[in-house]
Amino acid sequence: MSPWLQGLTRLRQYPSALAGLGIIVLLVAVAIYAVTAIPYSEARDLWRSGEAWQDLPTSAPPVWADRLLGGDAPRTIRVATDDVVMEQERYEGVRLQRATLPVEFPYGGFPQEVNLFVESQFDDRQPFVRLTWRTPDGEAIPLGARRVGESERISISQDRQLESRLGFAPQVGLFTDAAPGTDDPQVRQGTYELVIEAIQFEETATLDANLVVYGQVHGLFGTDHKRRDLAVALLWGTPIALAFGLLAAVGTTVTTLIIAATGVWLGGWVDAAIQRLTEVNMILPLLPILVMVGTLYSTSIWLMLGVVVVLGIFSAGIKMYRAMLLPIREAPYIEAARAYGAGNARIILRYLVPRILPVLIPTFVTLIPTYVFLEASLAVLGLGDPVLPTWGKILNDAQAQSALYHGHYYWVLEPAALLMLTGLGFAMLGFALDRVFNPRLRSV
Amino acid sequence: MTTPQPSTRPPQAAPGEPLLCAEGLHTHFELRQWGFVRVGSVRAVEGVDLTLGAGEAVAVVGESGCGKSSLARTLLGLHRPTGGTVRFDGTPLNGLSGRALKRYRARVGYVQQDPYGALPPFMDIQRILAEPLIIHGVRGRAERERRIDTALAEVGLTPAADTRRKFPHQLSGGQQQRVVIARALLLRPAMIIADEPVSMLDASVRVEILELLRRVQREHRLALLYITHDLSTVRHYVDRALVMYGGRIVEQAPVTDLLARSGHPYTEALLSALGDPDADNARRQREVPGGEPPSLVHPPSGCRFHPRCPHAMQGKCEVEPPPPDFRPRADHRVACWLHE
Ligand SMILES: Nc1ncnc2c1ncn2[C@@H]1O[C@H](COP(=O)(O)OP(=O)(O)OP(=O)(O)O)[C@@H](O)[C@H]1O
Ligand SMILES: [Mg+2]
After folding, report:
1. Which of B114, B117, B132 is closest, CB to CB, to A340?
2. Tens digit of pLDDT for each residue in A353-370?
């Protein structure tokens, strides 16, 4: 059995390795699900679009967080005219359309907002719409009347006139039976109704309305300040984080190792040049350079990846690998290989490099999360990819919106938890690999 | 297997040019301080003339540090000689490069001292033996496996299928050295250079390995350069022996002749140590001959051996180095003023 297989079977004895492996498998599964469920370009466009998110509440925590704390915050309720029967009456030259949208409201808190999205098709004359709110008691509150265009948002909760009439903000006043001006109004639970009456002046004109009573909580992961569902960013952040970490780790370790081995093998001025380059590169600060590139050029994640890899090639790792390879260079089996005609490239790749792979693999595994964190740090510094949703960008948004100050802990904790989970998974596996492979290295 | 006697096969009278021919070979290593300041040089090989006929087995004997390995590496083209020439099959090795050097390497097998170190620990035997074949363009897995099996069978590692899957650390020292010999034979060389092939092995397997070398050398009519510090291992396994001292060849003769009628005081000292039946092998090595081995950085003037020589002649030996070819007999050459 090869030493590699032996090492891997011994890995089974480490529960931490299995746990780490489990976490990594989970993350990979999420990543695969993300890229198959929402293709790359779609995810990019979705995250940037405003329209896709218009019927989600702003900065709403996840449902479970509220329920766990014993809350009864409302969820978002959507009722469309398509869901109900539209009554129609004809008069001379005009039609009167009437729809009653029921709003079943069993929650203990007031909604965040109330909006009505109206879409209408007509040639010339806009329909005229009158809205009436009916409480469970049967009380009717007129919400005003207006002409509507082709696609319009009627922000009921932003209606200042209504607010002064009700004595509360509309989203409160419409859902309570407390006397106007009461300090602590209570929700009146029950079924409310929005009655839409439209006067159509054209025979073929249509009207579709969609009432959204915004909840205070949303889904499994909550939303951000732009109403975007964090689930999308957390989901898509996974493949991006893993790809960035993996590519950066592969890009730096493989090149570093090969360059170190080349320097050790060829010696002379090649080795000297590599050493000096490494020393210069070691004092170059990575983060400020990345900030500079990001500020002056582009913050594209792929450009950042390139810079990280290029700066990572001549990293301190070269010194470490060199120290490990120098004694191996003198090994009799290398001399034997020269004697049977192995060329420089073959000696470097087949005789020098494999000898330190056992040390390299654990280092490589633990290196992956450091690059994931680096990407997140860049994003927090405002140098996240301009179009892609990433974990770091969620943190950046949360910070910009003072999420913690406003008590939106979920907004910070969710991406942070994923980052920590990633770090934990790779670290546990890496440390176990280290224990499995390195005693062997010392013994051979 | 019967121990072959040198008399069963006369030393090769080389028809025309011998297979390997070194003339005035020098290999010096520069000693540097801080990586660039030259402070002297180690004259590991100094003016060695050596010939090796096709199918001839020759031993190079000398104490530790006298430059035997440096000579071997120079002949293998692993060190660039500082001076002199090496010709193999009529072609000079100096300045040989690329394809020609690679072709030379396919024709010369190398057996090192430390069998475990000579095998890459992360490869299995199959892979280790496939390497030279791959490098020299033997295409086809089946063909390679066939040749590997043949070589393993030849060195007595059967069944070959079992051995192929093992890693070096799973084999005993003797088996490891057999793998090294198999590797040296794989490319069907014309010559094998074995640098102290048994000095790191258990005494119990030394004879086996030496007999194996002798057998394959005869079966394939290989030229064998057997390097050793132990004169006792020379008798049955080679045709001719060279004695090396301080980077120079001080005596060469057919092995029976050398053992019976040595001409150089250094060889005599080595032989008298062999005669002591009580001393074990290791002690014998250290005690003989008396005095310090010569420094190769600041070698003694004149004859390198004169500070330790019981017959040193004042005003002669420390002044002028003896020429290497006083001939007490036709095929016996000694570098010693006693034979002037
Ligand atoms: N690559 C090298 N660079 C510098 N000095 C060297 C090098 N190789 C050998 N030497 C020196 O050359 C001298 C002869 O070494 P060499 O290995 O040829 O001796 P040897 O006869 O094989 O000894 P041993 O019996 O210990 O193997 C030693 O003093 C050694 O230190
Ligand atoms: Mg040696």
Report:
1. B132
2. 988 888 888 889 999 999
For chain A, the domains span: 3-47+227-437, 74-214
- The preferred substitution site among B70, B225, B248 for testing ligand 1, maximizing ligand atoms within 8 Å of CB, is B70
To the question of pTM greater than 0.80 for the whole model, the response is no
What distance in Å separates residue A340's CA from the closest CA in chain B?
5
- Measuring from atom 31 of ligand 1, which residue has the nearest CA? B65
The string of pLDDT tens digits covering residues A377-434 is 988 888 888 888 899 999 999 989 988 898 889 999 999 999 999 999 999 999 888 8
Average pLDDT over residues A314-336: 91
* CATH code assigned to A3-47+227-437: 1.10.3720
Q: Domain B20-107+187-339 carries which CATH code?
A: 3.40.50.300
Architecture of domain A74-214: Sandwich (2.60)
pLDDT one-digit tens code per residue, B74-123 = 999 999 899 999 999 888 888 777 888 899 999 999 999 999 999 999 89
* Backbone conformation region of residue B14, classed left if phi is above 0, alpha if psi is from -120 to 50, else beta: beta
Closest Cα in chain A to B101: A341
Cα–Cα nearest to B328, from B283, B267, B281: B267
Q: How confident is the model at residue A268, as a pLDDT?
A: 86
User: Does A333 sit within 8 Å of B117, measured CB to CB?
Assistant: yes
Ligand 1 atom closest to the Cα of residue B247 is: 14
Q: Phi and psi (nearest 5°) for A380? A: -65, -35
Q: Order across the sheet with A113-121: list the strands.
A: A77-80, A206-214, A113-121, A151-155
Q: Chain B contacts of A342, Cβ < 8 Å?
A: 131, 135
- The candidate with the shortest Cα–Cα distance to A394, out of A215, A247, A214, A229, is A229
Q: Where are the domains of chain B?
A: 20-107+187-339
pLDDT score for B34: 74
Q: Identity (one letter) of the amino acid at B51?
A: T
What interface predicted TM-score (ipTM) does this complex get? 0.87
Expressed in angstroms and rounded, the spacing between residue A37 Cα and the centre of ligand 2 is: 66
